[in-house]
Design a protein that fits this description.
Layout (H helix, E strand, L loop, with lengths): L1 H65 L3 H7 L1 H8 L4 H18 L3 E6 L4 E4 L17 H9 L1 E7 L6 E11 L2 E10 L2 H9 L3 E5 L5 E4 L14 H7 L18 E5 L2 E6 L8 E10 L4 E8 L1 H39 L3 H83 L2 H28 L8 E3 H19 L2 E4 L7 E3 L2 H18 L7 E9 L2 E7 L30 H11 L3 E5 L7 E7 L1 H12 L1
Parallel strand pairs: 13-15
Antiparallel strand pairs: 1-2, 1-5, 3-4, 4-5, 6-7, 6-11, 8-9, 9-10, 10-11, 12-14, 15-16, 16-18, 17-18
Helix pairs in contact: 1-8, 1-9, 3-4, 9-10, 11-12, 12-13
Protein name: histidine kinase
Catalytic activity: ATP + protein L-histidine = ADP + protein N-phospho-L-histidine
Subcellular location: Cell membrane
Length: about 625
């Protein structure tokens, strides 16, 4: 009796140990899943925030760079130098005021004004307004002192006259006997702040004093991002950098601390959108001594981590329960195997059941193998889609960055053409006209990049194929001449109107001509042949070169994004992919053949203008 009691006690302890071990396993797996999920989410959020901050930085720099030339232009203007020589001369002051007004009407900055060497504003673009800077002494502004000492200065502050915040670009005006004064451009960054607000992000720009100067939250403006010492408030107060009321002492974040390889901050308040714990990411702007800081709510991160931990714990618990049930089942089977004939029959039946289960398991394994194959195919398609998405983002960034210099170049060309007209210099006017056409073409190409990056419904448009080919040859003529390539091409006698944007078709042909030129760079015979064939409702353009040709194994992949047969650093593998997409959007097709050792031939087939419209109506009917 005592031995049976001891055995029962031993079995009870064993079960208790097994249950404790199972609970520990469930908790450990849940904890590991929580940490892995949270770490991955923090890393992903940090990478996304870094990309967003870089985009915001580029937008800010593009806007400031658009007005960077204004202080230099003001410093070199004879009207400005004349009024600094005689500040009390009303006629010179009137001429300088008119010059600054016209310059600002063209540039679109906030305000332009000129300060004498004692800090008094002698002329301004808003001389006629009630809140004009003329007559004000702004010598206490740090940008005046820094510009007089170093030649250039940058400073963000609230205007003491207008009460409007802006970014000041200052440049010293030097004379024969020393500094004459300072030319200042005030840039209103409200447009940048409004664009950021529309993005829905929680971001702010913090200056060298750790004070928030721009933010998507108006109540954060002119508040420290973290607590600031009273000595710092006393130091920056005389500068009136943040307006007459000065910087507010209540910080945006009451606490900031590092954790899990990132920074976190607690923001108090009753607003649910801006209260709680946030992940903090920042990007330094050394040129302005600023930092762009973004705040990402951590609630979704921890919620996903807890969900992953719960799922992992439940999965482990279910697995342990299954193992326990299997163990119990094995014990029951072992007991029944000890019985006589009746038990043997049941074992046979159980064996049959197991055989059926094995067959079902084999079928399940086969189905899983098929699912894994399908998953690999889906992953391949996802990789392709990710490449195309990266291509769209890159093209959008390029179009955005190029559009600002093109706009500035257009403005300068307009001014140069006006000067040429006034001087009646026809040669310069002709050259400027040619440059203006090139700038228009560059602007059109930028628009093409935007169209490729952001799909929009195309407007019906026609293009003369002969003119398009001639324009494309003009654009690559310098490269063809440089490589000594002969061109065989006869322009069609009759106009061939095709349906499509001429800039898009030119881009396709330029890609083909450039690729052909690169392929023939090392050949003895370099001939580029261009043929045009009119076949009913379609027209084909055949571009043939005498290069080394395309390997047979590479032909099926030449239109894939990022695929290139060129050496490292010679191409991204995007030209033919973009051309394929453009031709496809125009309702045409592009194909390539390459006989062994006899160069390559690309055929671009486009619908004629009238045929495309008829085909569209037939398709709709």
């Amino acid at each position: 009796m005592s031995s049976r009691f001891a055995l029962r006690e031993l079995l009870g302890r064993r079960q208790l140990l097994l249950i404790s071990a199972a609970l520990l396993a469930v908790l450990a797996c849940g904890w590991v899943a929580f940490e892995i999920t949270l770490a991955g989410a923090i890393r992903s959020v940090g990478e996304q925030a870094e990309r967003r901050l870089v985009l915001f930085d580029r937008t800010l720099e593009a806007m400031i760079e658009r007005f960077h030339y204004l202080p230099s232009s003001m410093a070199l203007a004879p009207e400005v130098r004349a009024v600094l020589a005689e500040p009390d001369n009303a006629a010179r002051r009137e001429l300088a005021n008119g010059f600054l007004s016209r310059l600002n009407d063209t540039a679109g900055a906030g305000e332009l004004f000129v300060m004498a060497d004692d800090g008094h504003v002698v002329t301004a673009s808003n001389w006629w307004a009630y809140d004009s800077f003329v007559g004000e002494n702004l010598a206490y502004r740090p940008y005046f002192e820094e510009a007089m000492a170093d030649g250039d200065a940058k400073f963000y502050a609230v205007g003491t006259v207008t009460g409007v915040a802006g970014y000041f670009l200052a440049r010293r005006i030097d004379g024969e006997n020393g500094p004459l004064g300072v030319a200042v451009t005030k840039i209103n960054l409200g447009e940048i702040e409004a664009n950021w607000w529309r993005s829905g992000e929680l971001i702010g720009i913090v200056d060298v004093n750790n004070i928030t100067i721009l933010s998507t939250r108006p109540d954060w403006r002119y508040r420290p991002i973290a607590p600031v010492a009273q000595a710092d408030y006393a130091r920056i107060a005389p500068q009136l950098r943040y307006g007459p009321q000065g910087a507010r002492e209540v910080p945006v974040a009451s606490a900031v601390w590092p954790s899990r390889g990132a920074s976190f901050a607690y923001i108090g308040g009753e607003d649910a959108d801006t209260a709680g714990v946030f992940m903090v990411d920042e990007l330094r702007l050394p040129a302005h001594q600023w930092r762009i800081i973004s705040f990402t709510p951590t609630g979704p991160l921890f919620r996903d981590a807890w969900l992953a931990a719960t799922a992992a714990g439940l999965g482990v618990a279910a697995l342990l329960m299954i193992l326990a049930l299997l163990a119990q089942r094995r014990r029951l089977v072992a007991q029944r195997l000890a019985e006589h004939e009746r038990l043997e029959q049941r074992v046979a039946e159980r064996t049959e059941d197991l055989h059926i289960a094995n067959e079902a398991l084999r079928e399940e394994i086969a189905e899983r193998i098929r699912a894994e194959d399908a998953e690999r195919q889906v992953q391949a398609h996802l990789v392709q889609a990710a490449k195309l998405a990266s291509l769209g983002q890159a093209l959008a960034g390029v179009a955005h960055e190029v559009s600002q210099p093109v706009s500035a170049l257009t403005t300068h060309l307009a001014s140069a053409k006006l000067l040429a007209t006034r001087r009646q210099d026809e040669e310069i006017g002709s050259v400027l006209g040619q440059i203006d056409k090139i700038v228009d073409r560059l602007a059109a190409l930028t628009g093409h990049l935007k169209t490729f990056a952001r799909k929009q419904p195309p407007a019906p448009i026609e293009a003369d194929l002969g003119t398009v080919i001639a324009n494309a040859l003009d654009l690559v003529d310098h490269k063809l001449r440089q490589l000594g390539i002969d061109v065989e091409y006869s322009r069609p006698t009759a106009p061939l109107k095709v349906a499509g944007n001429p800039v898009h078709i030119e881009q396709v042909l330029i890609n083909l001509f450039t690729n052909a030129a690169d392929a023939m760079a090392g050949q003895k015979v370099r001939v580029l042949s261009i043929g045009v064939r009119n076949a009913g409702r379609q027209v084909s353009v055949v571009v043939t070169d005498t290069g080394a040709g395309i390997p047979a194994e590479a032909l099926p992949s030449i239109f894939d994004p990022f695929y290139s047969t060129k050496g490292p650093g010679e191409g991204l593998g995007l030209g033919l992919s973009i051309s394929y997409g453009l031709v496809r959007d125009l309702g045409g097709s592009i194909s390539a053949v390459s006989p062994s050792g006899r160069g390559a031939s690309f055929t671009v087939t486009l619908p004629l203008a009238g045929a495309a419209a008829t085909h569209e109506r037939e398709r709709i009917d």
